[in-house]
Amino acid sequence: MKLEAARLLTYRAARLEQAGQPSGVAATTAKCLTSEWAVESADFGIQVLGGYGYAEEFDMQRYWRDARLYRIGPISNEMARNYVGESLGLPRSF
Ligand SMILES: Cc1cc2nc3c(=O)[nH]c(=O)nc-3n(C[C@H](O)[C@H](O)[C@H](O)COP(=O)(O)OP(=O)(O)OC[C@H]3O[C@@H](n4cnc5c(N)ncnc54)[C@H](O)[C@@H]3O)c2cc1C
């Protein structure tokens, strides 16, 4: 369900961009939620595989680390939330 939701958010942002409409909030929302769902999914994958999920000999721990990066870059999800919050009329928090 999260994979499908992530796709829909991403396609929505791409469609707005392609149509020449403002896409920043949609793209930031997609980046923020998709990165968090990717980490959750990889974390669940580690849990499913148990010790093998954590072991360096297997790929699942790397999937978690690779996904974890996108909560920090290219912008952190805290800054993403600041940006989306501002678009809703909330005061700038930094
Ligand atoms: C792979 C990668 C690609 C990147 N690509 C780009 C890029 O293309 N362009 C670019 O400009 N930068 C890029 N960055 C930099 C990225 O934007 C910063 O790493 C990120 O904003 C966190 O800043 P920092 O690392 O200096 O940590 P800090 O600023 O020290 O932040 C540490 C923590 O505090 C939080 N934080 C900081 N300030 C606030 C605030 N005002 N409100 C709430 N929380 C806050 C951060 O979210 C983070 O969790 C990239 C980083 C990585 C790792």
UniProtKB/TrEMBL annotation:
**What's in the keyword line of the UniProt record?**
Flavoprotein
Domain Acyl-CoA dehydrogenase/oxidase C-terminal, by residue range, is 2-88
Presence of keyword Nucleotidyltransferase:
no
What PROSITE patterns does the record point to? ACYL_COA_DH_2
What SUPFAM superfamilies does its record include? Answer: Acyl-CoA dehydrogenase C-terminal domain-like
So which residues are the signal peptide here?
none
Classification via InterPro entries: Acyl-CoA_DH_CS (IPR006089), AcylCo_DH-like_C (IPR036250), AcylCo_DH/oxidase_C (IPR009075)
The molecule here is called Alkylation response protein AidB-like acyl-CoA dehydrogenase
This protein's species is Pseudonocardia parietis
